Amino acid sequence: MKVSDVAKDLPPTDKLYLRDSYLRRTLGRILRVAKEKGSRYYVVLNASIFHPLGGGQPSDTGWLSAEGMKFEVKKALESGDVVVLYGKLLEGELREGMTVTQELDWERRYHIMRLHTAGHVIDRAVSEVVGSHVDTLGALHGPPRAYVEYGTSIDVKLLKRIEKLANDLLDDREVVIREVSSEELQNFIYGAPNLGRLPRSSKYRIVEVKGVNAIPCTGTHVAKASEVGRIKITSIESIERGSRLYYDVEPK
Q1: Which domain CATH number covers 196?
Q2: pLDDT tens sequence across 172-203
Q3: Which residues form the domain of 119?
Q4: Residue 27: left (phi > 0), alpha (psi -120 to 50), or beta?
Q5: Nearest 5°: phi and psi at 11?
Q6: Which of 7, 85, 118, 226 could bond to 79 as cystine, CB 3.0-4.6 Å?
């Protein structure tokens, strides 16, 4: 079954995760249920706290529940402006029009938030240590193994300096999120390494780590850089167009 078929003719999902990364539990109404096979289903809600796979971030997981019903959300996907949940019905039945409680696997989500904000800070550290602006080619800010791909060759001897600078930037500086029009974009971004692969849009969501950089991004982030903990650069490898830098976050 194609995700696009599940989402066909449905209104855009209210993407609650874009407005509040810390919202871990809320209500939603089922707009569509599509059975795949056995106990596996696709479910679309009118509003979602589940961030779908994409934008350099892995999918959230969690649960939907109502009286006598429990559904495990194994992944969230996106088709156009519609978020489609896929998972396993554990008990009861799913019905269109049903009001359910949606709940995140918060431990996983918060880890992803810390990793994603850390990735933005690493972008700044890489540019400073390399000595010039470096574009990103791609990223995975989450498990099983977080990484950022850069469009330049990075010497392994620089990794300790990159790690130290990145950690030096982690303090109580705020992480501010705003939405701007395409005409305003250049007034609000700085140190953004992803402009070369930015899709055209009438509006953009900007994530600014105060004093570090301000990057167009649709991911989930912590409110203060200090919540990241400590950044650990684990390894680096050469790829066709540059380098892939692997990292993780640890408690302080």
Answers
A1: 3.30.980.10
A2: 999 999 999 999 999 999 999 999 888 889 99
A3: 109-250
A4: beta
A5: -70, 160
A6: 7
